[in-house]
């Protein structure tokens, strides 16, 4: 199976953050990685392949290096979440004639109008009654058929819709689930019950999100483009995971790490986000298992390097004026280094030079992305993580069109180049 077919399958298996982590878990297990629990005592040795899942929506995989206490960490970080819509509690709303729509809350910053008039469904996790009151039985759930639609208002009732149409998140963006139902409140419990084959009385709560039923696909004259929802940032998750598995059999003195955080799109301020101490805790435990002291942990961090992998904006053929005049990455031009003078990214000349050398060794092109000076850019994982750990590192990503759309577009060649660069990074030492 080639990398692009593998990416398409990965995207289709990962409709929301919880399912993305489950997909990663299955691939890691197949490659000989074994799960650790943060509540247990750990015993680790050089060469061990382990991973930790946090909240079901973040995963941290590592291969223990042979350099012992003070060994450097070679880290690639990405995130599992994407902008979209989450179901609110008590979400069913019965309208005139029995039509039922669902009350949602916008997650992150999606391009709202790209969600109209598409077949949609729901996926996530459900909390069921368990033996321990403080530990509910958590089950993944996914409805594998079109279940919802967010219908647009016809142009006949809004003649100026193509001149700009301000949308209300509470009014305009609610999906319809049924045309005629008297028991609106029972719809979502019934869907959960049927999907999971459980008694509705056992359902305590849920984390369910909308997803597009459109499968990932290649497009273009030579199938050179990849189209899918959630490429930001699951394409980088896939590239990093593929690289770690590809490099796993090569011995290394460094401890190689894949860190897939959640909630980057909402600021990373959760127990499974990059603003939490979870990665530091894992590093400290690895160091302790190898017999290291506090100064060995500090030595490890000082010797480490992190690639913060989050997609970048590719030059849009219809809007070239929106981009920096000299630093606008092209789709197909290779992975790009992200730079910001106001430290929205962790990149500096030192770390950019290091990643350029990695790309040289991998035999792949490398580009630069800098925001147009009249446009403010967003931040990502790198600078948030360096508030926890003083790591050297670079922010980079493969370029996309329509970032945060319900369906984004990337270059197949860029994805392959990113995998090569990441595999080289994990194979340096």
What are its keywords?
429 residues; alpha/beta; five-stranded mixed sheet; 20 strands
Sheet/helix structural class: alpha/beta
Mean pLDDT: 96
Query: What sort of overall outline do the alpha carbons produce when their principal axes are compared?
Result: globular
The helix tally amounts to 9
Strand coverage percent? 25-35%
Helix content: 10-25%
CA(first)-CA(last) distance: 28 Å
Weakly predicted, low-confidence segments: none
Short synopsis of the structure:
The protein has 429 residues and is an alpha/beta fold. 25% of the residues lie in helices and 27% in strands.
What does this structure look like?
- 44% of the residues are buried.
- The strands form four sheets. A nine-stranded mixed beta sheet has the order 1-2-3-13-4-14-18-16-17, with helices on both faces. Strands 11-12-20-19-15 form a five-stranded mixed beta sheet. It has a three-stranded antiparallel beta sheet with strand order 5-6-9, with no helix packed on it.
- α1 (3-12) crosses α4 (231-247) and α5 (278-289) packs across α6.
- It has helices at residues 3-12, 17-30, 187-196, 231-247, 278-289, 294-303, 349-362, 381-385, 412-426; strands spanning 34-36, 49-54, 58-63, 73-79, 84-94, 100-107, 120-132, 135-142, 176-178, 203-212, 217-219, 225-228, 255-261, 305-309, 312-313, 336-339, 367-370, 392-397, 399-401, 408-411.
- A hairpin with a 2-residue loop joins β7 (120-132) and β8.
- It has 429 residues and is an alpha/beta fold.
- The longest helix has 17 residues, at 231-247.
